[in-house]
Predict the structure.
Amino acid sequence: MKQLGDGTLVTYRQITSSKGSPAVEIRLSSGSHNVQQQKIHFVMETTLW
């Protein structure tokens, strides 16, 4: 977890409850934006070969 100068928290989770995919979660400091939280999941690509 990393806290930025404006109070925003950025967290990397290697394993999540969403099929075990890794994710980055961004929680913006209150009052500074319309969006307060965003999660970005990274899903392994499967190939047919």
